[in-house]
Amino acid sequence: MNEITEGFKQVSDSLSKLGILVEKVIAEKQNEIIISKRFVDNMDGVITDLQTGLTWVRDPITVLGSHREHFTWNEAISMCNALSFAKIKCWRLPTIQEELSIVDYMYGGGRGLAINNDIFKNMKPCYYWTSTPCAWSEKDAWVVDIKNGYSFIDNKSFTHPIHPVCSTTIWTG
Q: Rounded to two decimals, what is the model's pTM?
């Protein structure tokens, strides 16, 4: 670590002890930007969550390119599993717990999306698929409403957007 990064860490640790959250871009270092105390922009279209260790696609719409934006549950799983983006091939549909882990209720409800749109780009105010099937109905699976942060079950034949995640980074080149 260089002196600036080490100095940032010391200041950040001190501020955290005082209960002050560091929210905006604070420090830059080799191909990464720390955009909050929790999330790091890897500068290649993905975000690393320092709290959970998960890697997220920053802008799901851009990654899909000319593809559709909405998928049935089975299509969503296949689409994520087939995705190769930012030299990573381990993409998948997140579990209900993983998708809810990035919900920030400070942003939700009538004030906009229940997700920080400075961190995650082009997220729509609608339900997003998770990989978690409904335990009591094989025709349903869990979704997270990004508008308000609530979770629901929905029919697997309905179509919703996806937000790919990777729990272990596997580089392809």
A: 0.75
